[in-house]
Amino acid sequence: MPDSTMTTPNSIDLADFAVGLPKAELHLHLEGTLEPELKFALAARNGIQLPESTVDEVRATYDFTDLTSFLAVYYPAMRVLVTPEDFHDLAWDYLQRAATQGVVHAELFFDPQAHTSRGVPFADVIGGYRRAIVRAEKELGVSAELVLCFLRDFSAEYAMATLMEALPYKQWIVGVGLDSDERGNPPAKFTDVFARARAEGFLLTMHCDIDQPGSIEHIRQVIEDIGVDRIDHGTNILEDDRLVEIVRERGIGLTCCPVSNSFVTAQMKADEIVALLRRGIRVTINSDDPAYFGGYVADNYVALAREAGLDAATLAQLAVNSFEASWLTPGRAAAYVERVRGYAAQHGVDLPAS
Ligand code: HPA
Ligand code: ZN
Fold first, then answer.
1. Cα(9)–Cα(349) distance, rounded to whole angstroms?
2. 177, β-bridge pairs
3. Interacting residues of 107 by C-beta distance below 8 A, sequence separation 6+
4. Which residue among 113, 153, 179 has the greatest number of ligand 1 atoms within 8 angstroms of its CB, and so is best to mutate?
5. Rounded distance, CA 208 to CA 182, Å?
6. Ligand 1: centre distance to CA 95 (Å)
7. Model-level pTM?
8. Choosing a second label site near 12 at 20 to 30 A (CA), which of 74, 104, 190, 201?
9. Residues within 5 A (CB) of ion ligand 2
């Protein structure tokens, strides 16, 4: 854990340090990387008419006050994604940008039901994404995995059918998650789907969004009833010391997204994120839907550092956490942690031995 024995040389530029820091991105929705420029290009390629005609007009619609108002803009934008090529281009654009932000490994959420519900075949979605991932490994040296998210405002039956549809592609999917509108859609709605996913060998994560009605009960369900391996967001766990202790003991990672938090709530929740870090929770920093919230992963590290007054050593600790909370094999995770330590040492930043 970060403490006062860590040194941060005054000469370090935190933004440069954050960009160069090797890190894993664990909370990134591929559909949330659809930048307006690509949206226009795909619309033109697919002969789709958009209501907006300039990038500024698109950005003017990004006027979110909460999760629901964000999702109301997010899903309609996806109709420009039609062919396997479109899904490839979306993921490839993201992976190139991620490489420039110091991402060396990414576990990427995708929402197949946002496409199959429009008539796009599952095979086209995952085929396009997979091609970009293979290419990124080869051309960028970035490793990536897919995490299939079920949309919680659709039925448990549709989620189960989607899981069945995904089974032939098991080798391309490391885990399953749960996203979309949490109101009235508790984790318990999907207990059977997640039990089946676990039995099929998938790792499990679920969104417990910030300040939702029933947040702490939802967090309890994912920990005690579902048995997740990770929690997405989840900072409301601070309301229950007992759950904080369970998550700490089990080493369950929390994938926090400070810039996103500042769009769907009134603030980044920096105090909560830092409090959890100081209590020994595997907190990680991620970008969620960067095309909409305007911050890729290094930007999130910097935004949090500025808001909470964090030093370079704490940023390095967050990068260590990103590999320890990842779904890499223990050997690969340990090798990446060594890279973080080497990078920190090169910059004169001391991290305590773990
Ligand atoms: N929460 C719920 N659903 C989402 C999110 C999120 O942070 N991002 C994209 N879909
Ligand atoms: Zn998310």
1. 7
2. 149
3. 24, 25, 26, 28, 144, 145, 146, 147, 174, 175, 326, 327
4. 179
5. 8
6. 19
7. 0.96
8. 104
9. 288
In Å, how far are 57, 293, 306, 353 from 53, measured between CA atoms?
Answer: 7, 20, 35, 53
Question: What pLDDT is attached to residue 64?
Answer: 87
Angle (CA) 31 32 37, round 5°: 90
pLDDT at 10 over 70: no
Token couple for 79:
């109709």
Which amino acids bring their CB within 6 angstroms of ligand 1? 29, 32, 67, 179-180, 207, 209, 288-289
Query: Which of ligand 1's atoms lies nearest the C-alpha of 180?
Result: 3
| Residue matched to tokens 């060594």 | 338
Which residue type sits at 90?
A: L
C-alpha 29 to ligand 2 mean position (Å): 6
Tokens of 259: 């810039």
Single out the residue of 25, 118, 123 nearest to residue 75, CA to CA.
118
Query: The domain 14-34+88-346 belongs to what CATH superfamily?
Result: Metal-dependent hydrolases (3.20.20.140)
**Per the structure block, which two tokens stand in for 107?**
């576990």
Q: Which amino acid is at 9?
A: P
In this prediction, residue 4 carries a pLDDT of 38
What tokens appear for 229 in the block?
A: 């391996």
Quick one: tokens of 314? 């704490």
Phi and psi torsions of 233, nearest 5°: 70, -115
Could you tell me the two tokens for 256? 């926090």
